[in-house]
């Protein structure tokens, strides 16, 4: 029973979700050894899992963290919004990444299981059946999850720069943002004629409102502004107490060969927001954004760079990392949750 405790006198039905066929088979074997558990289905992608959840109505879901298309944490958030149920996160990453466990619990997971290191075959999942049985009777709060709100301050802003590969990368980052996310400004290298459709597409798949920046528009929680391609740079300035920041479209020559330029945005955020900002540099060619991100870091902002393995082009993130602008490099799936965590932590430090 959702929202309360369910005492099982009958078999616990479980759906196993993992992108690895081998892992799905091994998890199924491990769970079947417990007579209280019946594995009713397996899925290799979130899309398959969604259909099976609706069809099979399992009592418990085991969910891998790393999956194609949408990572496990993003899918977990959707489950808790659409059909809250006991979920056990299963991954070898959990033992080494306490922030991932923290995020999973915030999103609504009732248990986290780390695969046994040094073991092989079914032994990797020894103990998982007991965790699943325990999870089946735990309380599930349908209101858990990042989507219920960002607890940081409106004085805190997020600036993101991207180029080649950024269209897909930005979709994944914004996919983890709640409806009232920190005020966010994005520069994606793109011709002017594509900007409006790009913003419209992001808006259709994101919980916050996504739109093109206009001159003088006020930054606010729950709003993401995309710099329009073309003849202007997009910069941020500090305005007043009620609406601390605004966007400005500024004329000027291309910077690093680009207009709008990531550097132009980052330099302005460094001056306007200082330590009350997070800067993110994503996949892209060449070096735009590296110097501006360094200025942000030197002003006290937190800075994140996409790692080599998940970047379509490891050019901009590499340049930023090599000049000392990047505080931490992360795989794409971890960037959105980390931005929110850094913003909330910095807000708490200020109080």
TrEMBL record:
<keyword id="KW-0963">Cytoplasm</keyword>
<comment type="function">
    <text>Involved in chemotaxis. Part of a chemotaxis signal transduction system that modulates chemotaxis in response to various stimuli. Catalyzes the demethylation of specific methylglutamate residues introduced into the chemoreceptors (methyl-accepting chemotaxis proteins or MCP) by CheR. Also mediates the irreversible deamidation of specific glutamine residues to glutamic acid.</text>
</comment>
<keyword id="KW-0145">Chemotaxis</keyword>
<keyword id="KW-0597">Phosphoprotein</keyword>
<feature type="active site">
    <location>
        <position position="288"/>
    </location>
</feature>
<feature type="domain" description="Response regulatory">
    <location>
        <begin position="13"/>
        <end position="130"/>
    </location>
</feature>
<dbReference type="InterPro" id="IPR011006">
    <property type="entry name" value="CheY-like_superfamily"/>
</dbReference>
<dbReference type="InterPro" id="IPR008248">
    <property type="entry name" value="CheB-like"/>
</dbReference>
<dbReference type="InterPro" id="IPR000673">
    <property type="entry name" value="Sig_transdc_resp-reg_Me-estase"/>
</dbReference>
<feature type="modified residue" description="4-aspartylphosphate">
    <location>
        <position position="64"/>
    </location>
</feature>
<comment type="similarity">
    <text>Belongs to the CheB family.</text>
</comment>
<dbReference type="Pfam" id="PF00072">
    <property type="entry name" value="Response_reg"/>
</dbReference>
<dbReference type="Pfam" id="PF01339">
    <property type="entry name" value="CheB_methylest"/>
</dbReference>
<keyword id="KW-0378">Hydrolase</keyword>
<dbReference type="InterPro" id="IPR001789">
    <property type="entry name" value="Sig_transdc_resp-reg_receiver"/>
</dbReference>
<feature type="active site">
    <location>
        <position position="189"/>
    </location>
</feature>
<feature type="active site">
    <location>
        <position position="163"/>
    </location>
</feature>
<protein>
    <recommendedName>
        <fullName>Protein-glutamate methylesterase/protein-glutamine glutaminase</fullName>
        <ecNumber>3.1.1.61</ecNumber>
        <ecNumber>3.5.1.44</ecNumber>
    </recommendedName>
</protein>
<dbReference type="InterPro" id="IPR035909">
    <property type="entry name" value="CheB_C"/>
</dbReference>
<feature type="domain" description="CheB-type methylesterase">
    <location>
        <begin position="151"/>
        <end position="346"/>
    </location>
</feature>
């Amino acid at each position: 029973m959702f929202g309360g405790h369910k005492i099982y006198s009958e078999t616990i039905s479980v759906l196993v979700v993992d992108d690895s066929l081998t892992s799905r088979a091994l998890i199924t074997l491990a769970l079947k050894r417990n007579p209280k558990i019946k594995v009713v289905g397996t899925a290799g992608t979130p899309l398959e899992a969604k259909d099976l959840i609706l069809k099979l109505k399992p009592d418990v879901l085991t969910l891998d963290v790393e999956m194609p298309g949408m990572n496990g944490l993003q899918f977990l958030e959707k489950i808790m919004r659409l059909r809250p149920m006991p979920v056990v996160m299963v991954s070898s990453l959990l033992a080494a990444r306490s922030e991932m466990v923290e995020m999973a619990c915030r999103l609504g997971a009732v248990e986290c299981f780390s695969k046994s290191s040094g073991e092989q075959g079914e032994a990797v999942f020894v103990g998982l059946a007991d965790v699943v049985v325990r999870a089946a009777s735990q309380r599930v709060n349908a209101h858990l999850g990042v989507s219920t709100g960002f607890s940081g301050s409106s004085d805190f802003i997020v600036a993101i720069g991207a180029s080649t590969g950024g269209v897909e990368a930005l979709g994944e980052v914004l996919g983890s943002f709640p409806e009232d996310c920190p005020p966010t400004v994005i520069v994606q290298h793109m011709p002017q004629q594509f900007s409006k459709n790009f913003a419209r597409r992001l808006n259709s798949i994101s919980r916050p409102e996504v739109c093109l920046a206009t001159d003088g528009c006020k930054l606010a929680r729950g709003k993401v502004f995309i710099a329009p391609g073309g003849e202007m740079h997009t910069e941020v300035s500090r305005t007043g107490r009620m609406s601390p920041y605004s966007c400005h479209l500024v004329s000027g020559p291309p910077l690093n060969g680009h207009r709008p330029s990531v550097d132009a945005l980052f330099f302005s955020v460094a001056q306007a927001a200082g330590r009350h900002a997070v800067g993110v540099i994503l996949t892209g060619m060449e070096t735009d954004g590296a110097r501006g991100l360094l200025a942000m870091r030197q002003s006290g902002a937190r800075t994140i760079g996409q790692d080599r393995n998940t970047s379509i082009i490891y050019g901009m993130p590499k340049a930023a990392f090599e000049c000392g602008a990047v505080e931490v490099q992360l795989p794409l799936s971890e960037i959105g949750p980390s931005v929110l965590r850094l913003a909330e932590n910095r807000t708490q430090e200020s109080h």
